[in-house]
Write a structure and sequence with these properties.
The chain is an alpha+beta fold. The chain contains one helix and five strands, in the order βββββα.
């Protein structure tokens, strides 16, 4: 699967397993993730590509600021709870 900036992703491994993030940027080996609270857009989390599962049903419109990242994640979580 192709990982692109703006996509939502779930962490599959590590101490943050099952956390939802927005992909900020993609490298050959790593993906940079932000959640808008613990990990801001300015200081994204670097994670190995094989430890991330893309959520293809949703895509964030903008990854410019922390507020839009939090809104995208919250809307996804709220849809899952219904």
């Amino acid at each position: 699967m192709v990982l692109e900036p703006g996509m939502l992703a779930r962490s599959k491994a590590g101490h943050d397993k099952n956390c939802i993030y927005v992909i900020i940027s993609v490298n050959d080996e790593y993906v940079y993730l932000a959640d808008g609270s613990k990990r801001s857009v300015c200081h994204p989390k670097r994670k190995n590509r094989k430890h991330v599962q893309a959520i293809t049903c949703l895509r964030s419109g903008s990854v410019a600021d922390d507020k839009s990242v939090r809104e995208a994640i919250n809307s996804f979580v709220n849809k899952q709870m219904q």
